[in-house]
Fold these 2 entries.
Entry 1:
Amino acid sequence: MKNLPSLNALRVFETAARYQSLVKASEELFVTQGAVSRQIRQLEATLGVILFERRNRGIFLTTAGEKLKQACQQAFGLLTLTIDGLQQSSQLTPLVVSCEPTIMMKWLIPKLIAFKANHPDIEIHLVSGGGNIDFSRNSVNLAIRRNDFLWDKRYVAEQLGREWIGPICLPNAEDHVTTHQPLTLLHTRTRPEAWNDWMSEIKQIIPKQNELWFEHFYILLEAVMAGHGVGISSIYMIEQELSDRRISAPYGFIPDGSAYYLISPEIFEVNTPQAIFLAWLKKTFHETQIRLTDFCRH
């Protein structure tokens, strides 16, 4: 914590990064444009990196700036949800939702701001978790899981969306992938057969020069972004990176036969917080697929 810059500086940076404008940032924050500029310069000096390129009287995010922007938005989003929850009436019973770590970080948390805006009376608490879930032994109300295991038949499970997977790499490595040059393949222990499943389904062999293993997908994604090799990813986990063209998917994405589900120990009663959250999740999964349809191979 001692190495973190001030939260105020990060907030000023996030606002300027969101608008890519010092003027609009100053208007939102009710400070002068000069104050915004000074905060950003101090932040750049503290971090030792350039966050904005300044040209033609405009500002444009550098690669480092884009990465910090995404981290700030996720962090501030989670802080907003948490603080809103703390300020809610004690009479509100929160929905405690268990979710696999990477899809929670990369997909769910950024989108929950929209849910909160439309349903301010429903409080969501997120808990990181994967695999089997026992609702009788913890305070979790719902769980988002992929159906790669068998859960208790007494539970109710509603499908949210199919899983889509495919190789991902940096844009400058795309030619190496498609011309079948030997590459470093990146794996995760949470889905050890992902590469084999993809190659078998698409009938395409990616020659292996080396391989690296990671515990979770969010670590693998950082390794891909750092240029360590080619990984296999869920399309939901790199939505922003695909849209920003910071990551390439040279073969697109294919369904791997699995799907994401919302699991509950009870039926989804109409108009309950559980049912409202379920409907929103289904809609949001579908909207993600529509936005990324050009990357999907049917």
Entry 2:
Amino acid sequence: MEVSALLVAGLLVALFAVFTVVRAVRIVPQARARNVERLGRYHRTLQPGLNVVVPYIDRVHPPIDLREQVVSFRPQPVITEDNLVVEIDTVIYFQVTDPRAAAYEIANFLQAVEQLTVTTLRNVVGSMDLEKTLTSRDTINSQLRGVLDEATGKWGLRVNRVEIKAIDPPQSIKDAMEKQMRAERDKRAAILGAEGQRQAQILTAEGDKQSAVLRAEGNRTAEILKAEGQSRAIDEVFQAVHRNDPDPKLLAYQYLQTLPQLAQGQGSTFWMIPSEVTSALHGVSRAFGEALPQSPATREKTSDDEAAGDAAADDAARAAEAAAEALADAAKADGASEGLRPPGPR
């Protein structure tokens, strides 16, 4: 009986010793820290690794994470300078640098950071209008970080970054902004269309101008070449006439050849017979009746010259016949016109 009681007592002592050893040894993970209170007063901070404390006297608090933490706060209503309520969602990146201050200087540092962020955000955004708020995120972030870092330094925290995740204006403002953006896009599209049309018209006008200039230059060159050709032809004829030394008889012959062509036009209903026709006919008759003078043009004829002379005589005969027929037709036309003319006072 006594042995059993001693055995139970020994077991109890052994269990108490084991429990005491377990309570005296504490293992802290990496990037963690634990505060130790001895008899209710802060004693020290346990570092990562194996640590020994006095059991039943030292009290070890829960571990504090020393890594950088990311906290996203729910959207908060903020009133801008132009009295518009916007919902702003923020994200904060912070890190615990002093576990003792984070545990004893503030009761709940996460809640404190959230409330400080909201109040600072309202102060900063309250001095801006909506348009500036939407376009000044970097300014708001830097101001928030400066205020939070200064206020949380004594809490053992370091605010690394503050980011605005979203700024949501009221739905009516969204609709108005969408209409404004649509109007701006339509305006830019109309401006670009007008610019394109103007550029196209300018290019078309430039092309027409260049085409007209080239066409005018071509016409000018053609007229110059035509005039030069006519000038050369006239010069050649003039030189040929002066080289062959023509006499009035040849000119009269050419005049008779031209007369039949005057009556061949479709609109030639009235034809005047010049008075020089009679003298021209007499000149032609004398030209073919008289002997040709001895000149370079009327040198002694060879067989070829005789053939050419016969051909010229035939041509002259045909020309004389055509001139006679033309005179007859002209006389008939003159008589017809006299018959159709109404009688006048005599």
